[in-house]
UniProtKB/TrEMBL annotation:
UniProt-recorded name of the protein: DUF1799 domain-containing protein
Taxonomic classification: Bacteria, Pseudomonadati, Pseudomonadota, Alphaproteobacteria, Rhodobacterales
Region (Disordered): 1-21
The species this protein was found in: Ruixingdingia sedimenti
Pfam family, one: DUF1799
Superkingdom per UniProt: Bacteria
């Protein structure tokens, strides 16, 4: 398939980085932590275990790395990520009894952002990868 990134001959970076950006964006919108990330053992969590009567011996577990406040974006992915962020208010949503249902980006608005930023057509596929990762997170939230 010509438009399918999996078979695209011009793959510009390691797989998964754009999807990770979409996942990070959607989780931040929902105010949630990533369930795929391991729980970080910090002083507060150690204290909670002590309250429950299950103290953790010092050094029993490896120290958790410091939590990151940001998300690393590879330079090759900046055009797609900045274009996606330029479209972040252009989502089509439906409100129902189950809450807000995220349907996807308004591609007419995406086209305007891309033209205004002078982006190449290939960036659109990258934006779709980010969008799909975000939609996957939003659908997890519905379950």
């Amino acid at each position: 398939m010509a438009g399918d990134r999996r078979g695209h001959p011009r793959r510009r970076g390691p797989p998964g980085k754009l999807k990770a950006a979409g996942r990070a964006w959607a989780l931040s919108r929902l105010g949630r932590a990533d369930s795929r990330e391991p729980v970080r053992l910090d002083a507060d969590l150690i204290h909670q275990f002590e309250i429950l009567g299950a103290p953790i011996a010092p050094g029993a577990l490896p120290a958790a790395p410091a939590a990151s406040e940001g998300f690393e974006v590879m330079p090759v992915n900046w055009p797609a990520v900045t274009a996606f962020l330029g479209c972040e208010t252009q989502w089509r949503c439906a409100a129902g009894l189950a809450g807000l249902i995220w349907l996807g980006l308004d591609y007419g608005a995406v086209d305007v952002v891309m033209r205004r930023c002078g982006l190449a057509d290939e960036v659109f596929t990258d934006i779709q990868l980010i969008e799909q990762a975000a939609l996957d997170v939003f659908s997890e939230d519905m379950s």
